[in-house]
Amino acid sequence: MNIENTKAQMRKGVLEYCILSILKDGEAYTSDILESLKDAKLLVVEGTIYPLLTRLKNSGLLSYRWEESTSGPPRKYYDLTENGNLFLTELSTTWSDLQMAVSKVTNTKAKK
Q: How confident is the prediction along the chain (112 residues), in pLDDT tens digits per residue?
């Protein structure tokens, strides 16, 4: 069994939650989102994040606005919608419950 594949699948499973959490404090440009994920050691490539952002937008969880850039093409800034905030609250509860369940099964303490 390939451990790298399993680790990648685990990261993909929490990526939506992480992106919504990044945006809870305000809008962000895609490269800012990628940088936050990178800082957290969640390595994600642009080819993964753009389709995910589009899916979240099409689901009504994100909105975006265009802003002109002095150093290139216009930039798309993403922000949570009201539905996105509600969805994030639900995911936070689910994450907490899942973290406790996994910790119980694996006999490890959840990091808060």
A: 888 888 778 887 899 999 999 999 999 999 999 999 999 988 788 888 999 999 999 999 999 999 998 888 999 999 999 999 999 999 999 999 999 999 999 987 655 5
Distance of CA 53 to the CA centre of its chain: 9
Nearest-angstrom CA–CA distance, 82 and 60: 9
User: In a 10 Å sphere around its CB, with 0-12 CB exposed, 13-18 middle and 19+ buried, how is residue 42 labelled?
Assistant: middle
**Helices 3-23 and 82-106 meet at what angle, rounded to 10?**
140
pTM for the complete prediction?
0.85
What gap in Å lies between CA 108 and CA 46, rounded to an integer? 33
Encoded tokens for 4: 């790298």
